[in-house]
Design a protein that fits this description.
mainly beta, UDP N-Acetylglucosamine Acyltransferase, domain 1, 4 helices
Amino acid sequence: MIGALDRGELRVAEPVDGEWRVNEEAQQAILAYFRLRRMEPAEVGPFEYHDKIPLKRGYEQLGVRVVPPGVARYGAYLARGVVLMPSYVNIGAWVGANTMVDTWATVGSGAQIGANVHLAGGVGIGGVLEPAGARPVIVEDGAFLGSRCIVTEGVHVGAGAVLAPNVSLTASVPIIDVRGPEPVEHRGHVPPRSVVVPGTRPKEYPAGTFQLACALIVGERRESTDLRTSLNDALREFEIGA
């Protein structure tokens, strides 16, 4: 089963009839693989490793560009045209065609990243394998995540969404649409084509009022926005620096 994950024949989660369905058997197979494997040394050029999971191989045949010391583990699927800068993709992850995983970005176990996505420098995509059935982070086609964004706990980023640098999303962080006369709150889901920036909101405590992190939907990405310039253009349109 791990070989099927590595080849992209099987996924930890996939869209079925418009809904994302988690493959619990695939999650359990990865956990069993960890238990069965033994620590082994590995040498790659001047680099030495000591780990249970072998490294992914055959990038030339796969049509994937990997810049040293970019690393993907066996059991991660990388579609044709993927570019890995010095970054890390963990077992069970699925990365779609022509996606850029930029410098020091990480894609956690089981995370599902669509095609033509840009994960900018230092983006952290969380992984999850247990409890069985837990939804991994999902980033759909054409999304652009700015530098140092953090997305964890099964958050679903819709197609074409733009996350400004330093946006941090968990299942409990409010994502507040502030475009209308009244705020509209989402949790765990960024609507497609949303332009999202970091924000704060006040909360009362016995010791006083303090600002807690949230994310703000301030606009919608235009259909005419080119993928390569979408982050800068979208943020400049709303007078926010990239």
